[in-house]
Each structure stands twice: as C-alpha cells, then as structure tokens.
C-alpha cells in the first residue's frame, strides 16, 4: 500500500527540480505548497531565489497555483508577493484543495499534466497521489513548524527511509 503513495521525485529543494525534464514528461501545470516549500513556516518574506525560480518556471510555460492548509490572510499575502493565485484552507490531504487549484489552472478538469510540489508526505504527497498526480517531495526549508507537523515528521522519516531502501534494492 505504501508504494501507491510514493513520491515520483524527492529533491532537496525546489531549486533541484529539473523543470526541463518536467516539460519533457508533458507537465504544464504546477500546484505548489507554500509553507516550508516556498516560504518558511510563519514567515512572510519571500526569498529572491524563489521569485527567480518561479519566473523561470513561468518562462518555460508552466501555469502555477499555490495551495495551502493555512488561513486566508497568510495565503493572500503570499499570493500578492508572488503574483500567483492560491487556495487557502485546502484541507490537504483531502482532494478538495487540489481540485480547486485544478479549477484555477485548467477550468476544473482533472489534468494529469499537473505536478504537485510540497514538503509534507501526509498532506501534499498523499493528497496529490489520491488524484493520481505527479508528486515532487522537497525537504522543508526550516525546522520551525506547526507542532502537529513536527509530530508527523517522525512518521514521515520512517516512510521515506522505507522508500529509499526500496530504491536501493
């Protein structure tokens, strides 16, 4: 059962994602988590490297939508800073937030030309895999996180260890 939820790629950060290879795979849409994927949890300042990476993705033709379990106020501030649409209170790993992002990106059609990028197995990966989307798991930007996320990380480490062991065999 765990194999069903295995991320398609695991990278240290968004900067290690080969956007050209995603294009070669036919991926044209990106749904990207905010907290600890693009912006450190609890912070509002966007790193200029993130802005450059997003600009490079847009130049390659990717359409991008943000998705977050965080509240409206935070997501709207990040949306404004990045110049991208977003979904707040997404309730990941439920499908609804990803489906709202899909609606924004391609008029509501579930589209398998979509990749989801996020830092959490139990929200980003499981939610996206439930919709059979391509998933890229990145390492969190900072260790400072919501307390429930810190608890989830304990179990996440075991699962990722299992996936890495499976890769070696």
TrEMBL record:
A Pfam family this chain is assigned to: Hydrolase
InterPro entries: HAD-like_sf, HAD_sf, PGPP1/Gep4
SUPFAM superfamilies: HAD-like
Domain of life of the source: Bacteria
Coiled-coil ranges per UniProt: none
NCBIfam families: YqeG_hyp_ppase (TIGR01668)
Protein name (Swiss-Prot/TrEMBL): YqeG family HAD IIIA-type phosphatase
Source species: Caldicellulosiruptor morganii
